[in-house]
Amino acid sequence: MSAKFDPTCLFCKIAAGQIPSAKVHEDDELVVFKDIHPAAPVHLLIVPKKHIASLETAEPEDTALLGRMLALAPQLAHDQGASNGFRVVINTGPDGGQEVYHLHVHVMGGPRPWSRMG
Ligand code: 5GP
Ligand code: ZN
């Protein structure tokens, strides 16, 4: 079982409030904040408070958490002004373009054109 908090992990530290972020949602299991380099007018990161390195290392016990992350996306996107659709992306591993090894769901929306990943 993975450790719940990795003191070397950027998103663990953001989730714990040790590094500031523009948070738009927080509950007992998840935190959601704005991407520091937005690829679209709305660009959110849905992050579990528990340290899970990537989708590849998620375990069967994380299935409900993964479902909650996706289920939260439409309301968040709408609340942030993405009223005409949105994209969800989970970059996984080196060839998946993952840069931060703490599981996160990108939620991107807003009027096009977008700058990248579009
Ligand atoms: P990945 O490539 O791992 O799927 O995405 C990592 C994302 O985290 C990138 O889009 C990047 O802009 C974002 N990011 C990296 N460092 C920070 C930070 O310190 N704060 C916030 N809010 N976003 C970050
Ligand atoms: Zn972490």
What does this structure look like?
- This protein has 118 residues and is an alpha+beta fold.
- It has one domain: HIT-like (HIT family, subunit A).
- The longest helix is centred in the middle third of the chain and has 17 residues, at 63-79.
- It contains 2 helices and 5 strands; from the N terminus they run αβββαββ.
Question: Which keywords apply here?
Answer:
118 residues, HIT family, subunit A, 2 helices, 21% strand, binds guanosine-5'-monophosphate, binds zinc ion
Strand and helix map with partners:
Blueprint: H1 10-15, E1 23-26, E2 30-34, E3 42-48, H2 63-79, E4 86-89, E5 105-109
Antiparallel strand pairs: 1-2, 2-3, 3-5, 4-5
This protein binds guanosine-5'-monophosphate and zinc ion.
Zinc ion is lined by residues 6, 9, 11-12, 51, 102.
Quick structural gist:
The chain is of the alpha+beta class. The chain has helices at residues 10-15, 63-79; strands at 23-26, 30-34, 42-48, 86-89, 105-109.
> Helicity, in percent?
10-25%
Number of domains: 1
Bound molecules: guanosine-5'-monophosphate, zinc ion
Quote the beta fraction: 15-25%
CATH hierarchy, class: Alpha Beta
What string gives the helices and strands in order?
Answer: HEEEHEE
Major sheet description = 5 strands, antiparallel
* Average pLDDT level: 95
The CATH topology name reads HIT family, subunit A
Shape: globular
Give the termini distance in whole angstroms. 35 Å
**Structure classification:** alpha+beta
CATH 4th-level superfamily: HIT-like
Question: What order do the strands of the largest sheet run in, or round the barrel if closed?
Answer: 1-2-3-5-4
Estimated radius of gyration: 14 Å
Number of helices: 2
Q: Give the name of the CATH architecture.
A: 2-Layer Sandwich
Sequence stretches where pLDDT stays below 50 over 5 or more residues: none
Number of strands: 5
